[in-house]
């Protein structure tokens, strides 16, 4: 397998992983496993004085994670589709779309997370940024149009 194909498949798999994460976030965000892997790291940034949050807060959390999960599902589908078709065809806009989209998301999401002291989410963002950024770094030359010789 050539290097480009490896990174193209990598991006496709990252898109699929985001879809799976979105489903888990949307539909299983109040489970014990999700608490262990996610909520226990985020909740203390907002509810420092208590070890458990109230039913009304849990209901809001369930809704907001549901909406965020649905967004991740859509984002993952978009990423997987772009990676599988136009990125694979080396259409320059696909590389630019990934680069601009992941950078804008990373700066905004990570900045907000750090502002509110949710370092776990900022670290999670960094992992995803690297997972998408590596293929972009290693495939950039495949998308650069050669300059015409005069």
What descriptive keywords fit this protein?
150 residues, mainly alpha
Give the secondary structure arrangement, pairings included:
Elements: H1 3-27, H2 32-42, H3 55-87, H4 92-115, H5 119-143
Describe the structure.
- With 150 residues, the protein is mainly alpha-helical.
- The protein has one domain.
- It has helices at residues 3-27, 32-42, 55-87, 92-115, 119-143.
- Helix 1 packs antiparallel against helix 3.
- The relative contact order is 0.15.
Summarize the structure.
Helix content is 79%, strand content 0%. It has helices at 3-27, 32-42, 55-87, 92-115, 119-143.
Report how far apart the termini are. Answer: 36 Å
Low-pLDDT residue intervals, each spanning 5 or more residues: none
The biggest sheet, with number of strands, parallel, antiparallel or mixed sense and barrel status, is: none
Average pLDDT metric: 92
Distinct helical segment count: 5
Helix content: over 70%
Strand content: under 5%
Domains, number: 1
The value of Rg in angstroms is 18 Å
């Amino acid at each position: 397998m050539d290097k480009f194909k490896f990174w193209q498949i990598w991006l496709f798999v990252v898109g699929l992983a985001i879809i799976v994460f979105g489903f888990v976030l949307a539909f299983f965000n109040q489970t014990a496993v999700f608490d262990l892997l996610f909520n226990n790291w985020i909740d203390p940034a907002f509810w420092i004085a208590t070890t458990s949050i109230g039913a009304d807060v849990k209901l809001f959390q369930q809704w907001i994670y549901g909406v965020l999960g649905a967004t991740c599902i859509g984002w993952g589908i978009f990423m997987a589709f772009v990676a599988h078709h136009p990125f694979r065809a080396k259409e320059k806009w696909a590389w630019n779309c990934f680069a601009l989209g992941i950078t804008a998301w990373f700066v905004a999401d990570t900045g907000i997370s750090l502002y509110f002291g949710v370092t776990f989410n900022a670290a999670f963002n960094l992992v995803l940024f690297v997972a998408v950024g590596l293929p972009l770094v290693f495939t950039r030359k495949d998308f650069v149009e050669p300059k015409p010789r005069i």
